Amino acid sequence: MDGKGAAVDLKARLEALHAAGGASQARRRRAPPPPFSPAIDDVMPGAWEDGGCGPAFVARRVIPLADRLGPVTPLGPVTPGDFLEVGPEWLGFLAALDGARPAPAEVTFLDVETTGLCGGTGTVAFMVGLARFAADGLHVIQLFLPDYDGEAAMLALLARLLPAGGPLVTFNGRSFDWPILETRFLLSRMAPPRTGPHIDLLWPARRLWRERLGECSLQALEAGVLGLGPRDGDVPGYLIPDLYFDYLRRRDASGLPPVFEHNRRDLLSMVALATIMTRRVADPLRPPPPPADLLSLGRIFERAGDWDRSIACYRAAAGAAGATSVAARARERAAAAHKRAGRFAEAADLWRAALQAGPASLLPYIELAKHLEHRARDLVAARDVVLRALQHVEACAAFAPGAGVAAGRAALLHRLQRLNRRIALLA
User: Fold this and answer.
1) Concatenated DSSP letters for 169-210?
2) CA distances from 122 to 166, 200, 375, 385, 426 (A)
3) Both 140 and 273 in a single domain?
4) Distance between CA 225 and CA 248 in Å, rounded?
5) How confident is the model over 44-82, as pLDDT tens digits?
6) C-beta separation of 142 from 260 below 8 A
């Protein structure tokens, strides 16, 4: 066969393959996936709502303002109405970083369930839970993605439900929830909604409770702050993507109600935590929290420049019974707060009290010596404090010798030599 014949034969074969592929694709197009049975509206009370790009499934529920969000906490019962009563101070305190003071009724709590926990363009938010306040209670709105081809419809409805410029409250939402939603809007060629201040509860929760609890996951906070036990019948968060994939594969929505309940409980826990934060900011000492929480509250107020409340929290922590290590650190922090506020005499009294109680570090020795040398101009008293500090260092070196002890000794010896020279000049 010459070259021309071979080319004709190859062309015919390619056309045959193309025709066969087209027929196969046509057959695939003619065979739609089987319907969901049961479908999502068969297992969940809800309705199909149109946000401008087609219908999306939405489940709605109203929690009356007087309903408890969980058991009675150490601060009393927590209800959505409590948040509305004391919310403004908390919102102003946390949202000040964004330069806004939103009203509680303007806030939208948001939590998403996704097909993965690592983020990225392949992660889809298949459920978006919202909680907003209204005259009749807390409205919980859950948007669900019944299949991938309905994503634009769900996102369009979400954009309509989020008030333009309204503040968001999430838990770890700055790093996870909201970036995923922004990505999905952009991939769907839609502009992400414009929101107001974004208050991520994870960060104030860590400032308030990490000293006492260590871990500050939502489940740890439910147990350690809200007094909630393990959720009955709850599905673990790491299994939720598998449940959604199983729903798509089997075309069976019967396993999804626990996912809706998990998302709803997350939203209610967020409202409850925000309420507890509100109460603690508004009245940090009544009822008295654990000493470790007092220490954390003192740091928060100190950071905000609220010296009076900061020092009150530190003093309460220092006076708490059975918290020796916390008390020592609280005395040091209270003295530092007095110093930053320019109250040097009060700071000196606390440094002296720390030395009498047994300091947790060299800091009270050093600060008191500096105060006596540079402000009180009592060089002899400053030298006495340095000599006591050296005794403390030698005692520490006997139990835990190391570079830190050596550095502390060297700094104290340098200060002692300077004081001796100054005292000699005045003699």
Assistant:
1) EESSIIIIIHHHHHHHHHHTT-PPPP---EEETHHHHHHHHH
2) 28, 24, 63, 63, 76
3) yes
4) 37
5) 999 999 999 999 999 999 999 999 998 888 888 899 988
6) yes
Q: What is the Cα 194 distance to its own chain's centre?
A: 21
Domain final position from 282, 313, 328: 282
Angle at 107 (CA atoms; ends 196, 189), nearest 5 degrees: 50
Q: What is the CA radius of gyration of the chain?
A: 31
- Strand order in 47-50's β-sheet? 47-50, 55-63, 137-144, 125-134, 108-114, 168-170, 198-200
Is it the case that residue 410 has pLDDT exceeding 60? yes
323 and 385 inside one domain: no
| Host H or E run for residue 301 | helix 291-303
29 within domain boundaries:
no
Q: What is the pTM of this model?
A: 0.83
Q: Which amino acid, 183? A: T
Contact residues for 371 (Cβ-Cβ < 8 A; gap 6+) = 344, 347, 348, 351
Residues 403 and 321 placed together within one structural domain of the fold = no
Query: pLDDT (tens digit, 9 = 90+) per residue, 279-289?
Result: 888 888 988 89
